[in-house]
Amino acid sequence: MIDYSNFAFPKNARVKNKKLIENKKHKCEFCGKEKCYTNTHHIKSKGSGGNDVEDNLIELCGNCHRLVHDGIIKKDELLKIIKGRRKRNGK
Ligand SMILES: [Zn+2]
Ligand SMILES: [Zn+2]
């Protein structure tokens, strides 16, 4: 299998929310890999009305991002992470 962990996903440049870009953690929220190149993935694509809001964005390493777009990692699993993130923040 090809290692996509440092694979720059071309669609990444679409995030326009500056605050979110500055907060980029370089940590994959799915597999927990740190200090890697991460892509901001829109859970709901911009094409279907998704926005640059935190609840719609998730940082993924190249590998996980690929798996999401290939449909191997399901949207439900990403939503679970978003939910857990909210809990951690105590919101
Ligand atoms: Zn990952
Ligand atoms: Zn994506």
- Strands of the largest sheet, in order across it? 1-2
The Rg value, from CA coordinates, equals 12 Å
| Helix/sheet category | alpha+beta
Number of strands: 2
Tell me, rounded to a whole number, the average pLDDT.
82
How would you spell out the order of helices and strands? HEEHH
User: What's the overall geometry?
Assistant: globular
Query: How much β-strand is present in the residues?
Result: 5-15%
User: What percent of residues adopt helix (DSSP H or I)?
Assistant: 25-40%
Low-confidence stretches: 9-13
How many H/I helical runs?
A: 3
Verbal overview:
The model is unreliable at 9-13 (pLDDT under 50). This protein has one domain (18-88). The chain has a two-stranded antiparallel ribbon with strand order 1-2. The radius of gyration is 12 Å and the shape is globular. The protein contains 3 helices and 2 strands, in the order H-E-E-H-H. It has 91 residues and is α+β, with helices and mostly antiparallel strands. It has helices at residues 18-22, 62-69, 75-88, and strands spanning 38-42, 57-61. Bound molecules: zinc ion (ZN) (2 copies). One zinc ion (ZN) is lined by residues 11, 41, 65, 69. One zinc ion (ZN) binds at residues 11, 41, 65, 69.
